[in-house]
Amino acid sequence: MHLELEGMKTKIPVFRGRDAGNNKLILEVIAFGGPLIKYDVFKSLKSRGVKHYPTVSRRIDNLKKRGYLAVAGKKTINIGRRKEKSPTYALTWRGFIASLMMSPVIKDVPRVLECNPLLKFNLPFQVPKEIVIDAVKELFSLKELETITRTLLIGFLRALPRNIELIEQEKYLAYLVPGMMETPEIREKFEGKDLRRLMQIPGLLEWILDLVTTYEEQLVEAVKSIQIVKQGLSKYVESQKPIA
Length: 244
Known about the structure:
Elements lengths: L1 H5 L13 H14 L4 H9 L6 H13 L3 E11 L2 E10 L1 H7 L3 H4 L2 H7 L5 E2 L3 E2 L1 H11 L2 H18 L12 H10 L3 H6 L13 H37 L4
Antiparallel strand pairs: 1-2, 3-4
Helix pairs in contact: 2-5, 2-7, 3-4, 9-10
């Protein structure tokens, strides 16, 4: 599986060329420490052989331009006697997927999700990330999660017709689904799990109740609208009937 994943690096252009090494280092540092300002990334990489701040700055700008990083907020820093606000950077979903190619990241996915606020689960409804992370931790060990994530990543990259930068991030889910269909071993990981344990997660039941209540309110409003349309149509039909 590891060799197969290595062979799919061609679908992640940021890991090709002379800048690939620095790109990997930056994504890994932000994966575990984000959101970070540029200088904090540089400080973390000095011990790993990166000697020049402008190199880190240019790489971060490039990663942001290509959709692997995005500005997550601002941090006040001191420059001499004055204070300035410097942008902080965190992983996008593109950056997260790319970072999974690195062993330290794929071995601790929950921590990476916790550290990067831009990684949100916006499905037809937004799922609170902390609930997702708690559910994953409750059901799986880190080793099990690593196996599941690696399998999903391979399926996802295999399904991509082109490289990751040529697909809009909003459409990634569409390529994840066929990837899941090709990986029946994921289902096996769920078999035997006691899903009742999920009910012990703080806030889960409250969130489900809020979700159901919201859908109920939407359905009630939809029914009211349908009834109004029905009444209007009924009156029109009656008005068209010939008078006896």
